[in-house]
Write a structure and sequence with these properties.
By secondary structure, this protein is mainly alpha-helical. Helix content is 64%, strand content 0%. The longest helix has 18 residues.
Length: 109
């Protein structure tokens, strides 16, 4: 189970180092090739030395976006308790919009 902690406003966004590249990844990622998407995000995390909270949430977001829910849950649970809720919400919103935009299935409630 994922623990809930108080919101920490100091963690509102991705640090400036790598932020543009992370945004570019999300704007251009091909979710139809999941192994490439995973490798690209791992490469960005390594290249920019993203901290644990951001690294785990970015990987979880990739796994969510490609439908690997079990892997996503593992990454979310591995994130430090102080991880940014704002970052999570931003990625989830993007992932859900992207998933519905590329799906032939109607949205489920």
């Amino acid at each position: 189970m994922i623990s809930v902690t108080k919101h920490d406003p100091s963690l509102e966004s991705v640090p400036p180092i790598g932020e543009a590249q992370i945004d570019q990844f999300w704007n251009t990622v091909d979710l139809n090739d999941p192994h490439v998407a995973i490798a690209q995000m791992k490469s960005l995390i390594t290249e920019f030395g993203l901290d644990d909270a951001i690294a785990h949430f970015e990987m979880a977001s990739v796994y969510d976006a490609i439908g690997f829910e079990s892997e996503a849950a593992t990454e979310y649970e591995a994130a430090p308790p102080s991880a940014s809720r704002a970052l999570v919400c931003r990625r989830h919103t993007f992932n859900m919009a992207r998933r519905f935009a590329t799906s032939d299935e109607p949205a489920k409630r």
